[in-house]
Amino acid sequence: MEQNTGHKLEIFRGLIKFKSNVQKIWGVLIFLSVVTAIEVGLGIIKPEILMSYFLSMKLINWIFIILTLVKAYYITWDFMHMRDEKFGLQVSVVITLLFLMAYAVFIFLVEGNYIYDIMYEGFVSWNF
Amino acid sequence: MSSTISSTQIQSELNTEPKPLDASYGKLMMWFFIVSDALTFTGFLISYGFSRFKNIDSWPIADEVFTHFPGLHGVDAPMYYVALMTFILIFSSVTMVLAVDAGHHNQKDRVAFYMFLTIIGGAVFVGSQAWEWKNFIKGEYGALETRGGMIIQFLDSKNNKRLALKDFASYNPEYREQHKSSNGLWFQSESALPNYSLEEVQTGFLADPSIVVRIEKIDEKGHKIILNRNQSIEKVMQGEYVVEGANLIRNEYGNRLFADFFFFITGFHGFHVFSGVIINLIIFINVLLGTYERRGHYEMVEKVGLYWHFVDLVWVFVFTFFYLV
C-alpha cells in the first residue's frame, strides 16, 4: 500500500497519528459518531445542571453549538481534505465564511430580540 | 493567427499553467460554489433564528413535534429518528471519502463500490426525510387556532397527556362537503376539510370536564403553559379553525413560521441531497464506463465528493438548530 499521497495523517494536533489515509477516515468517523451520540444523549436526557443560562443562552445550547462547530471542522479538514490544502485556500474559505456568518448571526439575532421586546412591552396583546 | 481556441486547448492550458493556491481549476471552482451555497444556508438558518428570537417565549418545542420512529407506534421517541438520519448521512460521507481515496490510487473497482454505497446512503436519507415530512404533514393530535392565529392544544388534566381530536370530538350528523373547483365556479375552491368541524370539537370539549388546553406561551422552565378549565373554555370558544397536521399556512404545532421554516430549510437541504445523488450517479456511471481510468485521474470523484461532504456539513447545522437547540 503506497502511503505517501500527500495527506497529513495526524489529528488533534498530532495526538493521534494514523498510518494511512483510510485509517484516518475511520478514525474521524468514530470521533464524529461519538460527538453526535453525545449531542443526541444530551438532547434526550436534558440534564438539569445544563439548563442554567450563560451569556443569555442555555448552557446546553452552547454545548450543542460548540460540538457542531467541532464536527464541522473535522468534516471540512479531513473529509474535504482541507488539511492538505495550502494555507491561502484554507484562510480564504474559512475566514470569509466565519466573518460573514458571525456578522449575520449578530445582526439578525439582535434585531429579532429587539422585536420581541417591542411586542412584549407594547400595549397590544398578541395572544388572543 | 486563428482567433478561435478549441476547448481542449483551453483545458491543456489550464492544466499546465501554474495553479493558484495549488488547487486545480475544478476544485477551486467547487470551493467557490460551496462558499456561496454555505452563505445561502446561512441566510435560511439565520432567518429561522431571527423568527425564533422574535417569538422566543412561544416557539414550538422540537422534542414534542418529532417523536416518531418507524415501527414504534404511539411510542414517544424524540430525536432518535433524526439521529439515525444523521448517522446515515455521516456514513455516506465516509464511503464518499473512501471512494476519493481509492481514486487517488487509481483503483477503479473500489471507487465504483464506494460510490455505489454513497448513492445508497443518500437515497436512504432522502427517503427518511420523505417519511419525516409525511408525519409532520399528517400530524398526530390536531389543535384549534384562535382568532389571533395562536394554536391551542388539548390535554387530559388527569395525567397531563396530549389528547387527539378524535379522542373527544363529538359527532354531529351535519354534512359539509369540500368545495372543489369542479362543482362550482372554476376559480373558487377550498383546501381539504379537517376530519372534525369546529362545532364538533367544541361540543366534545364541553362535554368532558377533564379536558384542558395549553397555549403557545412557554413558562420559565421551558414548558408550555397549561390553562385551568375555565380559562380553557374561554379559549376554546374563541377558536376559529380546526387544524390537523401542517401546511404552509397553519400547523398544529404552534407558530405558523415553524412549519414554513421546516419545509423550506429541510426541503432545500433534501433537494441538495437529491441533486447530490443524481450527480453521484452520473459520476458512478462514468467510473463504470472507465472515463476516468482513461483520463488517468479521478479528480471528478474528488469534486463531487466535496459537494457531498458539504451537504453533510449543512445537515450537521440543520440538525443542531432545528432539532437540538
Describe the structure concisely.
The complex is a heterodimer of chains A (128) and B (325). Chain A has 128 residues and is mostly helical. Chain A contains three helices and four strands; from the N terminus they run ββαββαα.
What would your notes on this structure say?
The complex is a heterodimer of chains A (128) and B (325). Chain A is elongated and about 65 Å long. Chain A folds into two domains: 84 residues; 43 residues. Chain A is 63% helix and 6% strand. Chain A is mainly alpha-helical and 128 residues long. In chain B, strands 1, 2, 3, 4, 5 and 6 form a six-stranded antiparallel β-sheet that branches. In chain B, strand 4 and strand 5 form a beta hairpin. With 325 residues, chain B is α+β, with helices and mostly antiparallel strands. Chains A and B meet through helix 1, helix 2 and helix 3 of A and helix 2, helix 4, strand 4 and helix 11 of B.
Could you give the topology of this structure?
The complex is a heterodimer of chains A (128) and B (325).
Chain A: E1 10-11, E2 16-17, H1 21-45, E3 53-54, E4 57-58, H2 59-79, H3 87-121
Antiparallel strand pairs in A: 1-2, 3-4
Helix pairs in contact in A: 1-2
Chain B: H1 7-16, H2 25-54, H3 62-65, H4 80-104, H5 108-138, E1 143-146, E2 151-156, E3 161-162, H6 165-168, H7 198-207, E4 211-218, E5 224-226, H8 229-237, E6 239-243, H9 256-289, H10 291-295, H11 299-324
Helix pairs in contact in B: 2-9, 2-11, 4-5, 4-11, 5-9, 9-11
